[in-house]
Amino acid sequence: xxxxxxxxxxxxxxxSPSSGQGSDHGITAPLTVPVEPVSEVRRFxxxxxxxxxxxxxxxxxxxxxxxxIFAIVVLIATExxxxxxxxxxxxxxxxxxxxNVDPTTNLPLFWDPVNGDFYALPFLYGTxxxxxxxxxxxxxxxxxxxxxxxxxxxxxxxxxxxFVTELLAAIPSVVxxxxxxxxxxxxxxxxxxPVFISIFNNxxxxxxxxxxxxxxDDGLFGGVNLGLGLLASGVILAIMILPIxxxxxxxxxxxxxHSQREAALALGATRWEMIRIAVLRNARxxxxxxxxxxxxxxxxxxxxxxxxxxxxxxIHRSLLSTGHSMASVIANEFSEATSDMHRSALIExxxxxxxxxxxxxxxxxxxxxxxxxxTPARVS
Amino acid sequence: xxxxxxxxxKAFAGLSAGFLMLAFAGTAHAQKLTxxxxxxxxxxxxxxxxxxxxxxxxxxxxxxxxxxxGGIKQATSGLVDFGATDGPxxxxxxxxxxxxxxxxxxxxxxxVPVFNVTGVSDLKFSPDVLADIFLGxxxxxxxxxxxxxxxxxxxxxxxxxxxxxxDGSGTSYIFTDYLTKVSKDWANGPxxxxxxxxxxxxxxxxxxxxxxxxxxxxxxxxxxxxxxAMQNKISFGAVKNASGNFVKASIAGVxxxxxxxxxxPADYRVSITNAPGAETYPISSFTWLLVPAKSxxxxxxxxxxxxxxxxxxxxEGQVSSLYYAPLPKSVVDKEHATVNSLQ
Lengths: 380, 343
Fold this sequence. Notes:
The complex is a heterodimer of chains A (380) and B (343).
Chain A: H1 2-12, H2 29-32, H3 40-47, H4 51-83, H5 85-91, E1 100-101, E2 108-109, E3 111-112, E4 117-118, H6 121-152, H7 155-170, H8 173-200, H9 203-209, H10 230-254, H11 258-266, H12 271-300, H13 303-308, H14 326-333, H15 340-372
Antiparallel strand pairs in A: 1-2, 3-4
Helix pairs in contact in A: 4-15, 5-15, 6-10, 6-12, 7-10, 8-10, 10-12, 11-12, 12-15, 14-15
Chain B: H1 2-28, E1 31-37, H2 42-55, E2 59-64, H3 68-76, E3 82-85, H4 91-95, E4 101-116, E5 124-125, H5 127-135, H6 144-149, E6 161-165, H7 170-182, H8 184-188, E7 202-204, H9 206-216, E8 220-225, H10 226-231, E9 238-240, E10 246-247, H11 251-259, E11 284-292, H12 298-313, H13 329-341
């Protein structure tokens, strides 16, 4: 490499570089090579310089962009782990299930910033229960929407309907929260909850189903009817995750080959039987995946839940009672958490939430991918 | 090639020379200070800082209202030039601080009980009754103890719904500090802090969250900052002070609380809840600036010192327009002496 360069310098500097050096001096050499058979396009490309170098540096740049995603995730994880060390080293895994008992009221005491005792059970409970309520409401509704859109909808309705469904996903969560506190909560308190209370708490149902523990004053709808609480946050979450589940389910359903539908119909199936046998059966893994993806959103949702769940670190069986969620306690208390232990405990909750959402999302993607990549469809 | 690189070089040299000149100009005239902390005094602080900058060209004070906890953390580790907090620093925090910080009371705030009881527009609360309501021991509005404080008021048989702050806040600190002083059960139970374990009730986010929930739920009681209640024309209850008078919160009543503190400690870390005095409103508190005793940059220290004197002389006159209570004269005089001791 070195030698030809000096030769070229000493010998042929004033003269235009002759052929043979082209591969080493990409910039100057091609210009002077006699180029009769080369097309206009080729000449333009050659004149632009070393494209191999550009290609390589471009791919390196893109690689850096891609890797930065991993770097961000790793940085978040290490930061969460290191910042939560204080809490972890003090209580360890007990953080997630232990509690103290309040000496005066004899009630369990989970979260006591004044005395520096922090246990996360009520937040886990609130997050799980409100997400489950959300799934119970959203899943049937979303699957109904998806079936209608893929199988039954007249063509002129399909576009507007799927547009509106996806529009729901674009509304900021704080707007949902405000709507919930001014519209949904009074609605639940005045009209919906009384119906549930009259069904669950009337003497006949208590007599018949008292053994389940789900009815009566200690049951699912016992206690004071405030409108706020786990049920309200479950309902608002249901509205928020509905578009995610509906649009993904629709996608998975339309991935089912038409031959399957035609085969079912040819065998004499009614429309409902065709949907059940050919569509739902083939798409079931993908539907589960989309449900889990919705669950992931519900678990991490912060603002809307913080505004309606009631923010009390307690555990009650009643859905009408107030609760707290993992994401909302972090949002509420982090800015004024003055003690190190308090901050560390909040970050540990954040770490738990981070791990759970990663797992849930990973699982969901895997299931959706298993369907949409085109696994052989089975009808049995 | 040569000419291009020459041009680039010249441009670059020119630019860097410009930056250098700017930097020199900076040390000569412009001075940029950064502070962080409490959200409660943010409106008056931002007004002060902008007016001070207008009166002193070249000085720029930037304040981030990130919360008292963050303010203490950043000030103790020397990340900002000064901090601000609604609750005084604890002894542990002072011991663990890298920078020796001095507390300067700036303005006063108060917390008032707000309620929504059917057919009732005005209520009076004794300290023990207020504490027992929030402890959940008094659960109905027609309780004999509430009726005793409010002769002539027709109280309904309504369940009491307690609304408290869900987010950690200086407002909760002042309120629980007061309850801790007036009730043994409260002191042994939830205690005082920016966030405590509330025995009962629903959490609302921010003053607006608490006020919104109180307005919505019949039979509810909550607490908000005096400023918030006054600005939004929310009616609030009177509280019995240490001298036995029922006092409705007002700017004068809050300043009286600070004037009547029997013994002001040298470091100003004092709670003025339940202070003596006939006109004193009992649920009041200072909010503090945390200023380093010796600034790392002497030029910044000089600006801070000048600002504090300006605040005590001119700034205090502006606070009432934003519904804050100004410091009493005794505290202003004492602070002037402390400002002069800053290095």
